[in-house]
Amino acid sequence: MADRPASALDRALSRFDPRTTWFGWGRTLIATAHLITLALTPTAALLHPLLNESPYPHCQKALAVSAYCVGGDAVSQEWRRWIMVVLLAVVAGGYRPRWTVWIHAWLLYSIGVSIALPDGGEAIARIAGLLLIPMGLADDRRWHWQRPSTPIGPTARGTAFAAVWALRVQLVILYVQSGVSKFGVPDWLNGSAEYYILRDPIFGAAQPFEGPARWLSGHGLTLGLLTWGGIVIELVIAAFLVGPERLRKAAFVLDVVLHASIIATIGLWSFSLIMIGCAAVAAAPDRTPLSAPRVPPLRKELRPWQQTRSSNAPKATSTGAPGSMVSR
């Protein structure tokens, strides 16, 4: 009996391969979230000083390795911003994940610790960036959209397997905490929280969804479904993410529905894309088929114009004398 969990783990590990398109899409979504933030937000807004604090970025001690600090005053913050945009575009494009996973983790750390008002998405992305490193080191593809063509080594498989499960556990903790904590808030318990959230003057629903959102939250039944439905979805996602592949895929679909509705109503594009990207990596299939090896052709095929010229060429016949050839 004690050997059963070990044998199940051995089977899961033996067939595991992180080099899936799910991994690629997850990296792309996380990188795109920060690319949009940097490209569309002025540097002055990201680094605006807070009350009673020195100007951002803060570059003391460990913060000095941030992309906002390396190079000191010799590099302007505007140049840094666009260099980071270019690097994030390379990551999002999927080129050489084994190399770019390091750059991505560094950029996620830099943004998370250096801008004035990071949100929960930045904190989650910093953790995800570290956990993506073992998965990226196992990925020898040129582009993370391709099928792998070589078997994965046992060390790379083991570290990537541990990293994937660490990410799943992180997301489970996050969604359970988010869902359960709402039970301590009266508005969530009585089903009216979404009424106030959607009408908030700063973070409330925006056009073109403001009208439908206000209408739905103005009726008791639909308001209760909106409020309690969000809690149920969060808890179901947490439960399904540690299940078999079909349940993980269902968790990913629910995650997309949840965060797409957040985007449609109260915005939070960056946060939502990060969460969907993390869910894509966590819900990925355990294995992916290798691409078929490329077999070179036995002989070079003639093009149509070459075939025509070959068939019209004069034929040579022998006259019987050794070494002599006469054309007809």
Please give a structural write-up.
It is a multi-pass membrane protein. This is Sporulation-delaying protein SdpB family protein. The protein starts with a helix and ends with a strand. Helix 4 packs antiparallel against helix 5 and helix 5 runs antiparallel to helix 6. The chain has 328 residues and is an all-alpha fold. The protein has 14 helices and two strands; from the N terminus they run ααααααααααααααββ. It has a two-stranded antiparallel ribbon with strand order 1-2.
Largest sheet entry: 2 strands, antiparallel
Terminal CA distance reads: 86 Å
Count the strands?
Answer: 2
The average pLDDT value, as a whole number, equals: 87
Spatial extent as radius of gyration: 28 Å
Beta percentage is: under 5%
Secondary-structure element order, N to C:
HHHHHHHHHHHHHHEE
Helix proportion: 55-70%
- What is the 3D shape? globular
The helix tally amounts to 14
Count of all domains: 1
SS-based structural class?
mainly alpha
> Regions with pLDDT < 50 over 5+ consecutive residues?
316-328
Protein name: Sporulation-delaying protein SdpB family protein
Membrane topology: Multi-pass membrane protein
Subcellular location: Endomembrane system
Organism: Streptomyces nondiastaticus
